């Protein structure tokens, strides 16, 4: 169901009251309650930990109030635990809360109702929340729907989410928000000087041919922002084929594309005053007689030749052309999202995206926004001494490092080569997947650093 279906703006029924108490002030709150309430809470051995709840007895045995304890530093996710845990009814948060607190509560609740059940007969049901008057409905709904889109696109099986379907998702999004969406398909990539994208995708079957998705929205009078997303809809590894245990989750290798479409949806739904462009090289890295081979040399839009040291390092190859195209029109900044390297996961784990940037102001703004939103990332260096590790022997640059170390850095250095005109650029190497379930974050596709990027863009306007 849509992310905001369990948020009610104008309730017809009387809601149950949610009494929200901060964990660190719980004891003081309890001291002010009547003896019956104190005895009830103590006799039920209630512990004030984030997301914990207890029904308080009301008249005639009905639930009239529910106490929930909320940790201030994890408010959004504590509220995300409630829709699935509470009885399926309508609830209203007691009192008037600051806008940022109300927004966190509503977004958490909305994300707590997410379930990818496209292929199941039975769907889950959740409790509903009355929209607090201090909440910014437009912004919170935009973010919830953008995150939902990101998760859905990643979760879809590769059989139903190839280059054609990814392009259709972009066209549907464009239609929804009166944006323009152009596609450059198959041999047209060569005609339009996008040879690196074509080289990776040419090995795919006839119904999964490569394409570049180019979505634009907004007025040229506004700041120009370009988002680039890696759209490898399934990654076998190519002729350097992956072993089964590493191929199983490769439907998520278009997670970068899912992120930029989700972020674009949030930006457009919130009507941020920007001129937005979204570029997605949509390909499948397939095994066939037309697939690129190890040590092939392919052209790029920028002019550098790319030596294919490893066919499973295809993401940076398709991004090369997209980043060059993005920077040609000199936007105010570029952000790319990509499920690019296992090395970033080794360095930072699965939950913390790696951030690289050629511009300190852009990087610092993203990091600060991440901290403010609880959507953190960690900056790694574009360490220039490692650049020699991707020198090509036959081509200008290799997509494989000469050493087995620093793989996230050498991948980012590769991408930097294709950003022209000193355009401020940030690269986010994300997992795009929850390896286990937490409140509001079920196992499966996940939007990482999306809320941070949205907050950064909004603050810059």
TrEMBL record:
One of its GO terms (cellular component) is cytoplasm. GO terms for molecular function: manganese ion binding; metalloaminopeptidase activity. The keyword Transmembrane does not apply. One of its GO terms (biological process) is proteolysis. The keyword Manganese applies. InterPro entries: Leucine_aapep/pepB (IPR011356), Macro_dom-like (IPR043472), Peptidase_M17_C (IPR000819), Peptidase_M17_N_1 (IPR048816). Belongs to the peptidase M17 family. PANTHER family: LEUCINE AMINOPEPTIDASE-RELATED (PTHR11963), PEPTIDASE B (PTHR11963:SF20). This is Leucyl aminopeptidase.
